[in-house]
Amino acid sequence: MKSLYTFFFLLSAHLAVSQSRQEIHCKHFFYGYPYGTPATNDLIIRDIYALSNNDDTKFADWVAYRLSMHEVDGDLTVERNWKADPWLAEEETLEPSPSSHDDYKDASRDLDSDRGHQAPLASFKGSRHASHTNFLSNITPQKADLNQGPWQLLEARVRELVKATGEVYVMTGPVYQRTMPPLPNADETHKVPSGYWKIICIQEGSNISAAAFFFDQDTPRSDKIKDHKKTIDEIEQLTGLDFLWELPDNQEDHIESSLNNAFINMYFGD
Fold first, then answer.
1. Which candidate, 119, 114, 122, 124, places its Cα nearest to that of 146?
2. Residue 119, C-beta contacts closer than 8 angstroms, at least 6 positions apart
3. Catalytic residue among 117, 132, 190, 228
């Protein structure tokens, strides 16, 4: 009898947690938004991406975006004109140039860091909203070797995956495993990420394929993408976020615990 009571207690707890999660319907979410961000975060949903901006770090805890041929297949020229996110209060984000103060000034010189897109500009050359990738809520300080090396290559492989399958869902964001030097000229309190994760999902009929990767900020430019593969379970442990939670539990558990080597080797084998 005790085991029966335990079963119903766990079932009730599971249902309570499930019911407490807000239903948010958005074309960028793949079986649920990344769940587990602070209640003070700002949820921003745009035509080309959705993100959850953290008031304390001043960066997005996650960015999610759906890519199709409409976004990827284009030759739109968009300059990297950095702008503060118009939907965030001044104290919730960093300031760009040109403005009274550029928080990223000297970051390249002093930290060897780029303004790194989370939803990449190059993946939206077919969208008239491509310039929205330049809002600083979608930008983080990312080491140049990582940003211009395996991270950039992974983004290019995602675009090739779109061309091969027609539709790809991406979730990406930072982690804070250790204290990193702050931006040298930022006048807002902020927290620079120590690494980045990315989850890539496709669905063909009832079959779902997913790949997950993690890169430390100090990742060498020459590193191969596949050497940074992780399970989604491992990304959840790194971030404290819950992914794919709208799937049936047995299907979610199977997908999130698998490295999916065949899928990774086929599309991300570099």
1. 114
2. 48, 49, 51, 63, 65, 133, 138, 170, 172
3. 117
Token output for 224 = 């191969």
CA atoms within 13 A on the CB side of 127: 23
**Which residues are CB-contacts of 252 (< 8 A; sequence separation ≥ 6)?**
31, 244, 245
**Which backbone phi and psi does 42 adopt, to 5 degrees?**
-100, 125
Q: Who's near 71: CB < 8 A, 6+ residues apart?
A: 48, 123, 124, 125, 126, 127, 162
Q: What is the pTM of this model?
A: 0.92
Pairing of strands 139-143, 50-53: unpaired
**What's the pLDDT at 264?**
97
User: Which class is domain 25-267?
Assistant: alpha beta
The SS3 assignment for 171 reads strand
pLDDT at 152: 98
Q: What is the reported pLDDT for 97?
A: 64
Mean pLDDT by 10 residues, the chain (270 residues): 41 48 96 98 98 98 98 91 93 76 92 97 96 97 98 98 98 98 94 98 97 98 97 98 98 97 94
Residues 23, 81: Cα–Cα separation, whole Å? 34
The reply to whether 117 belongs to the active site is yes
Q: Could you give the strand order of the β-sheet that contains 207-216, starting from the edge strand earlier in sequence? A: 42-45, 50-53, 60-68, 167-175, 195-204, 207-216, 229-230
pLDDT of residue 12: 41
